[in-house]
Amino acid sequence: MINWFSAAKLGHHFIAEKLQAGDTAVDGTMGNGHDTLILAQLVGPTGKVWAFDIQAQALANTRERLATAGVLDERIELIQDGHEYIKKYVSHPIQAAIYNLGYLPGGDHAIITLTETTLTAIRDTLDLLAAGGRMVVVVYPGHPGGDREKEAVEAYLARLDAREYKVLKCNFLNRPATAPGVILIEKGGGRN
Questions:
Q1: CATH tag for 7-187 (out of 3.40.50.150, 2.40.160.20, 1.20.1260.10, 3.40.50.300)
Q2: Which class for 189: exposed (0-12), middle (13-18), buried (19 or more C-beta within 10 A)?
Q3: Does the keyword Methyltransferase apply (predicted)?
């Protein structure tokens, strides 16, 4: 059963519809490893997941979550670097990517994703996305800087060529404007 009213769970559903065993995926904001684990389970032992975060604590938390789930193996590459450097590590097409913007839950809330680096990461991830692939961006405008980042991400994605990309924005109508939202991007072509 899908929890349609959790931004992160809705993002997982959008990715799970497309990602298959043997595929490749990126978690652009590793955090506590929830998204990394979902991606690893979806791609299976023959797939590949690259997960990025700048904080050592995020890598430690993710490593522990993956080990507990029994999926900490060669299919997953945990990278302590900014997501704006994705092309330094990933050079071939990916089928899916997920970004949960903001800060590390349970971590230092002063360390946040930044508009400029996030836009670079999204642009480069779209370049890497295979035909028919999907990217999910979960935006959190409720923290300092989050509203600016959300607006910039939405403005960038709104300008994508509609013949090449489908972009869907999901927001909750009866929650404050600071509530998280989900943006789904699907690249044209590929498998259905």
A1: 3.40.50.150
A2: exposed
A3: yes
Per-residue pLDDT of the chain (192 residues; tens, 9 = 90+): 566 678 888 899 999 999 999 999 999 999 999 999 999 999 999 999 999 999 999 999 999 999 999 999 999 999 999 999 999 999 999 999 999 999 999 999 999 999 999 999 999 999 999 999 999 999 999 989 999 999 999 999 999 999 999 999 999 888 888 899 999 999 997 655
Write down the domain spans for the chain.
7-187
Q: Backbone phi, then psi, for 114, in 5-degree steps?
A: -110, 140
**Sole residue written with tokens 């109508």:** 173
Tokens representing residue 153 in the block: 């991400």
List alpha helices for the chain, DSSP H.
7-16, 34-43, 56-69, 86-89, 115-128, 146-158
Cα–Cα distance for residue pair 87/108, rounded to 1 Å:
27
Quick one: how far is CA 61 from the chain centroid?
Answer: 17
Q: Which residues pair with 98 in a beta bridge?
A: 27, 136
Q: Please, which residues bridge with residue 100 across strands?
A: 138
Distance separating alpha carbons of residues 59 and 57, to the nearest angstrom: 5
